[in-house]
Write a structure and sequence with these properties.
Elements lengths: L1 H59 L2 H81 L19 H13 L3 H14 L6 H14 L3 H14 L6 H14 L3 H14 L4 H12 L1
Length: 283
């Protein structure tokens, strides 16, 4: 009996100790929860203050300001759409002009090759006729008893050609209207002295000879040779101006306007640019 009571007392003591530990743990959890709750409340207060500040800023923006911003945005969007449309139109026009120019230049090149072939045939026939005439003259001279040309006389030794001498001779032919002979002389200068200071001038006068013969397609190609081969030469502005004039002769205002605009852009201070500006106003 005494043992039973003893064990009961021991059990109550042990259970009391366990219950006390649970109470302590529960109190610690409650304290932790309360601390977290205080933190959450403080954070909530800060968020509420921020919300009130944002609402205050939003209230300060008037409805009129918002409408003005929307109108400005709409206007900018419309301007961007218009610029994009105009850019596409300009790009399309440039592609069209490039296509037409390539087509016309290709046709001009074909015509030039055909005419060059015809000219070569004529020159060959002339050479044959000259040989026949020479033989006939020799035959007639023998038959009539007239003395022929002295056979044993040595030919005079001429000085070697220079760029200046070739240029002067070809320019003289050009000024006197012998276009084919002038072109031949200028081409000989360019071939013999490609680095000469006269080379770009010679190429320009080749183009000019075709222009004077009203062969405007070929003149356009030859003026382009001046622009491409001698970009630093003093004949580039004149070549661009005459190229535009050749396009106008062919009733091609679009390409003429394009070349004149480039001339004004690249050589704004030149006399040719002044003429180009006047031409652009009339187109």
């Amino acid at each position: 009996m005494k043992k039973t009571v003893f064990f009961m007392v021991i059990g109550l003591i042990l259970s009391g100790c366990a219950l006390q530990r649970d109470v302590y743990m529960l109190e610690e959890r409650i304290a932790t929860l309360e601390q977290n709750n205080r933190r959450l409340q403080e954070h909530s207060k800060r968020l509420e203050a921020q919300r009130r500040e944002i609402e205050s800023k939003l209230m300060s923006v008037s409805r009129r300001d918002i409408m003005q911003l929307r109108e400005n945005y709409a206007r900018i969007a419309a301007d961007l759409d218009r610029i994009d449309q105009e850019t596409r139109l300009v790009q399309g026009r440039l592609e069209e002009v490039e296509f037409v120019l390539r087509k016309k230049l290709g046709k001009a090149e074909t015509d030039f090759q055909a005419r060059s072939k015809r000219l070569e045939d004529i020159q060959l026939q002339l050479a044959r006729l000259e040989k026949r005439v020479a033989r006939l003259e020799q035959y007639l001279s023998i038959e009539s008893g007239k003395p022929g040309k002295p056979a044993g006389k040595p030919a005079a030794v001429s000085a070697p050609p220079t760029p200046e001498s070739l240029y002067r001779a070809a320019k003289k032919d050009l000024d006197e209207g012998r276009m084919a002979s002038a072109r031949k002389g200028f081409q000989a200068l360019i071939k013999a002295f490609p680095k000469s200071e006269k080379a770009d001038n010679a190429q320009f006068w080749i183009a000019e000879s075709y222009y004077r013969e009203k062969w405007y397609e070929k003149a356009i190609l030859e003026y382009q040779e001046v622009i491409d081969k001698y970009p630093k030469g003093n004949k580039v502005p004149a070549a661009m101006l005459k190229q535009a004039m050749a396009f106008l002769k062919l009733k091609d205002k679009a390409n003429a306007r394009l070349v004149l605009s480039r001339l004004v852009e690249k050589f704004p201070g030149s006399n040719e640019a002044k003429i180009a500006k006047q031409k652009l106003k009339s187109l």
